[in-house]
Amino acid sequence: MQAAVGYSENPITEQAGQEAARAALLQAGRTDPCALALLFSTSRHDAPALRSAVAGVIGTSASIVGGGAIGAITNDRFGYAGDQVGLALIWLSEVKCDLVVEKDLDKGAEQAGERLGKQLAALEVRPESALTLLYDSIYHVNGETRMVMATDLLRGIRQALGFLPDITGAGLQGDYQAGATMQWTGADTRQHAALALHFSGAAQIDHVIMHGCRPATGYYTVTRADRQTILEINGLPALEFMDKLLDSAIAPEDYPFFLIFGINLGRKYAEFSEHNYASRLCLAVDKQRGGIVMFEPDMTEGTQFQIMYRSLDLDYMIPRIENIFDRVKGRKPVFALYINCAGRAAGYGGVDLEDAVLLQKTVARRVPLLGIYTGVEIASIGGIPRGLDWTGVFCLFSIPERTAAT
Amino acid sequence: MTQDGPAQEFDYIKRCNERNIGKILQLDMQSIRIRHELEQKRRGFTMMTRLAETLAHGQGNESIFIAASKRINATLNMQRTVVLLPGKHGTFRAAIASGYSPEEEKTLAAQSMAPDPALLDPEQSVIINGTSPEEHMASLRVALRLPYLVAAPIILNNEAAAILVTGRTVEQPPFMTKLGPGDLETVKTVSAFLAALLAGRRVTEAEERIKIMLDAMPACCVLFDENFRPVDCNAATLLMFAFTDKQEFLNRFHELSPEYQANGRISAEIFIERMQKALAEGQARFDWMHRTLDGEHIPSNIVVVRAKRGDNYILAAYIQDLRERRAMHAEIVQAQMELHVAREKAEKNAQAKSEFLANMSHEFRTPLNAVMGMAHLLNADDLTGKQREYVKNVINSAELLLKIFDGMMDYSAIDAGKLVLDKTVFSPRALIRKIVESTKQQARQKALQLKIQTDPDLPDALLGDPGRLEQILAHLAGNAIKFTDRGSVSIQAKHSTAPSGTVRLDFTVADTGVGMPEELVGKLFTPFTQGDASLTRKHGGTGLGLSVSHRLVSMMGGELHCASVPGKGSSFFFHVFLEQPQARGLEQSPQTAPGAGQAESGTRSLAGMRVLLVEDNDINQMIALELLESEGVAADVAANGIEALEALKSGVYDLALMDIQMPQMDGLTATEKIRSMPEYADFPVIAMTAHASPADREASFKAGMNDHITKPIDPQLLYATLRKWDRRAAF
């Protein structure tokens, strides 16, 4: 298995697709067609035209998979909220990759997940199977923006499979405004689709989650919730509770995309361990009901959580990334995929340094790197894949050394 | 339980901690806002850098705006960007729109907006967000479909060249935040950047145009700084001095003049002087000798002009290479000399031709005078019928010969441009009467009817050359009679007033003669062509008469045409333009007394008249004496002007007949001397000479002669002239 990456910020779609594809081919140094192309772009580009442009360079035999991203990262370039295009070309050789696609996410994420799960079952996916899940996280009803919940999608998959394999992935989004976005599903371009890439054979995907958030408080309990809206905390209306807790230091209007709750999936009072914490980001406030709307509906009644604060430095990332590379010693890393919450971009996250810069510096030239800025991240915490917020999921693809020469 | 126990301590710490979290998050929020603003700035600067790279090469203003508006949307996280450009009457139109659907763009493009003055003032802040009143710039917001916007003018030459408007349709923190001063600052910076880009583009375009103009200019131009160092030149300069590299030329400029100029002064010194003069006075013009690196000298004329450039001056030297001009000048001088020589030669040739013609005329007329004179004398004697017929033939042949010769002389004179038309007051009616008189005998002999038709109000007097008109009409009438065997010959004269005030006379001479085919009509006015060779043999003629008539008519401003039907007859019609005497301030009465050349007809006796005949040729003397004596005129002979003067001192005469060309003293000189004697001031002197040209006649009158008759002598004309100048009748 070999991968190569390409990047463009050309505002002209056709040129952007061609530039990214040519850059990737140049990096690969190969003339034979690749099997798989992971393509991501902001919603400023026309999706069918971009696909055509890429296919015009790499050939029509490759399966082009991907969708919207708020930005992209490669080994030496990154950007977000612009005209970014990120592309990874993958030559599979000894690795097998099955693609399953389900549509109509807007008509029910759980049902779509179930259908997806059935397809995966047919592929004989196992709990240890490495899956990459990408789905359209946005749909619109009567002009209103709605989100597809990873929780619902994963629930559907679990229902069909009976388990959840080791899934990493992303809820795709093309811009910060939650505009409509498209997905490339192999040979098609469509909307409201979910697609899963099942890598089997020699491929191994190791991942690590990074969010840099630490608990700032003790535990509080969700005492009433309506799907993703927390209505009560510790018996008080959620907004009221929070305002009191924060001593009105932050106005409720500022909670969305700022307030982070952490769910500790490890021992309650053990030393802090980042990989035990699932971050949950506030999406909106429901003033009418005094509730706090979260990105995912998994903070159900009884969920205990802590208020998290974000780290303003990114040093926590380096050891975690290095740890992954250590973990695959003896194998050949062939590709790195970084699924990054778009809120972590420094321009919006308030940190000085872009995590993309640190990532590029740490990964360096060890492996072709493709990162995407997304709305939702999916990775396992405590062995269970879940939707995450404000998290960077670093996935490292590797193959046995003896097959690296292919 | 104490109040300060572990539990209280725990609660206390917990409460402190919880208060701290608020503070921590508050600080975090502030840093997010600050960082976001920095991010906007960073993006703005990155965008400008990318724009500068992308737009480095020669796009138009519109392409700058298109590129900028697309990047603003993407980079500054705006949803819509519009560039408003000036339209008519102070309005603006949305020329560039990014983030709109095609239909929306069309709607936008069709609108004209009168912008709020704040949009045109770079000092003002235009920020419209959720806190702005709805009515604030409502029309703009509705027109652009942009409820939240920031705007900044793009200023060029102190005027708004465009207005940059960008914004959002929703406010959705934290990503679609409320637009604020930070956003405006970034947009203003972008506007200033675009203005600088446009200004730079203008300067570049202007420089390119100047460069094109300079390089296309055929004149050489070298620019100097205030220290008189050459800093630039155009392509023509490099060509003139045979350089291919501009910098090399500039570096070696001072090698391109000889050490000394033509006036012996050092070139470097004069150069400084001239440049200083140009710098001080604004201009200097001077001649200069340049040279190429090969040593070829280039004489030049140089104009140095001072021009302002910012706070400094530059000097522009325009160098005119005089080599070509001098070469051309030399060629012109050479050509002029050759032209002068050719003209002198042509004039000499013309003069020689003129003199030849004059001599030919004289040399022809003199012996012909003898032939005709003798024939006339012989005709007066008793002859047999056959002898008389022979003499008549001799006379006819001689007259014909004279006519032919006169025709040839006329043609040559016209051809040489030497024939001058007379300008005399004459009567058209009298002229026609004369024609009738001269042709009626001929017509009667052939039993032809001669019809005359004239306008009843034909002018009494006109200014022109009656002699030549008579010649034309006589020739046409003579031809008509010649080529008509039966029927009639008609002469018609009409007149009309031309737009210029001159009088147009239309003459028609028509006959019922042989006529001629159309193809011959076309050749009629060609010299030496008579139309039909058989007719030529039958009727004679050289074909010069019509050609001469044609040209005489042309000289009078008219045209001569012919219409003919074989077997039916021919019509010759012509018109001439003549002035009215009153237009020249002349008397209207034509010459009723016989003027020069108009002899008195009649039969008054000349007997007893005493005439001094001044003639050097023996035969001419004999002929003249015979003619005079036959009328009873007593004549004494003087062989030259000197003898004539002597004769006048000793004798009494009524009149002198004076030849012109005589040895010792010619007739003109003799006449002048006669006129210088008061007692002979009015003495009639008649030129009787073979010099027949108008110039000769003029010379005669100028010398003081009263009249001028030409040889061969027509006896009747001689007698009529004598009668005319016979003063005996006056006393």
Q: Which blocks of ≥5 consecutive residues of chain A have pLDDT under 50?
A: none
Derived from helix and strand composition plus strand pairing, the structural class of chain A reads: alpha+beta
**Tally of contiguous helical segments of chain B:** 21
How many beta-strand elements of chain A?
28
Instruction: Indicate the overall shape of chain B.
Output: elongated
Largest interface: A-B, 34 and 37 residues
Low-confidence region ranges of chain B:
591-596
Mean of all residue-level pLDDT scores of chain A: 91
Estimated helix fraction of chain B: 40-55%
Kindly provide the radius of gyration of chain A, computed on alpha-carbon positions and rounded to a whole number of angstroms.
Answer: 20 Å
Q: What's the multimeric state?
A: heterodimer
Helix residue percentage of chain A: 10-25%
Whole-angstrom Rg of chain B: 54 Å
Concise structural overview:
The complex is a heterodimer of chains A (406) and B (731). Chain A is an alpha+beta fold and 406 residues long.
Features:
heterodimer, A: 406 residues, six-stranded mixed β-sheet, 28 strands, B: alpha+beta, Beta-Lactamase, Heat Shock Protein 90, five-stranded antiparallel β-sheet, 21 helices
Description of the structure:
The complex is a heterodimer of chains A (406) and B (731). By secondary structure, chain A is of the alpha+beta class. Chain A folds into 2 domains: 2-210 and 315-403, no CATH class; 213-310, Beta Barrel (Elongation Factor Tu (Ef-tu), domain 3). Chain A has 8 helices and 28 strands. Chain A has a 6-stranded mixed beta sheet. In chain A, strands 5-4-25-24-28-15 form a 6-stranded mixed beta sheet, with helices on one face. Chain A is globular, with a radius of gyration of 20 Å. Chain B folds into 4 domains: 17-204, GAF domain (Beta-Lactamase), CATH 3.30.450.40; 217-321, PAS domain (Beta-Lactamase), CATH 3.30.450; 428-584, Histidine kinase-like ATPase, C-terminal domain (Heat Shock Protein 90); 610-730, 3-Layer(aba) Sandwich (Rossmann fold), CATH 3.40.50.2300. Helix content of chain B is 47%, strand content 21%. Chain B has 21 helices and 23 strands. Chain B has a 6-stranded antiparallel beta sheet, with helices on both faces. A 5-stranded antiparallel beta sheet of chain B has the order 8-7-11-10-9. In chain B, a hairpin with a 5-residue loop joins strand 15 (488-497) and strand 16 (503-511). In chain B, helix 13 packs antiparallel against helix 16 (544-555). In chain B, 32% of the residues are buried. The model of chain B is unreliable at 591-596 (pLDDT under 50). Chain A binds chain B through residues 11, 42, 44, 81-83, 176-177, 216-218, 245-250, 253-254, 256-259, 307, 309-310, 312, 346-352, and chain B through 14, 17-26, 28-29, 31-36, 38-40, 42-43, 70-71, 73-75, 77, 79, 170, 172-176.
